[in-house]
Batch of 2 targets.
Target 1
Amino acid sequence: MFDPITPSTNTNGQVDFTFNGKNMSAASGTTIAAALLAADQIWFRETPISGQQRGPFCMMGACYDCLVQIDGVSVQACMTPVTEGLQVNRVPFSLPKEGKRS
Ligand code: FES
């Protein structure tokens, strides 16, 4: 019923990537969110105001709680396939330039 987003291209069907510098491996065609959840990584970002940890909720591109950074660009982990050599990072906590809102 469901097919992987991208077909497997290597012999063992695995791709290697990093999350916050930690080496990880996942099945080719898996989304970043699915790969990280399978590796017991449950939070991907912190909210900009309170700093609360957030992880995937909807797994279909609607909630944006799964944001991660790749090369400094925020992407939805549930909508992005993991690929060989990908360097994925948590979105760092940051307050808006004007400071904390009341
Ligand atoms: S988990 Fe909701 S947008 Fe990715």
Target 2
Amino acid sequence: MKAAATILLTSMIMAASAPVNYKLAEFEHKVGQIMIELKQKGWKPKINEQFRSVKRQKELVKKGFSTTMRSKHLCGLAVDIIDKRYLWNIPIKHQFWKDLGAAARKYGLTWGGDWRRFVDVAHVESKRGC
Ligand SMILES: [Zn+2]
């Protein structure tokens, strides 16, 4: 009975804290699925960046690599995925980016290649807010 009570209490605590990390866990699970699909297609995908500090985000905006201080990288709900053989040195119409975009859409994520104002082909983010 004691052990059962402990397990029950533990699962209650876990359930109570779940919403806090749910968005991140869900996003990371989907990113994991995207990585598997890309590997199955013969790509060598690499998550280049997920979490970003405010300082780093400011630097990227200053250099023109980002346009916002409200980036989902600040809370980990965005990743940049590249093929480690090509990095960013391939055209934006390259099949790797197309496959990345298709996989992101399949899992209900936003792909930066679909943006009009600032096309960001390596970028994948959650539709949920930070
Ligand atoms: Zn990004």
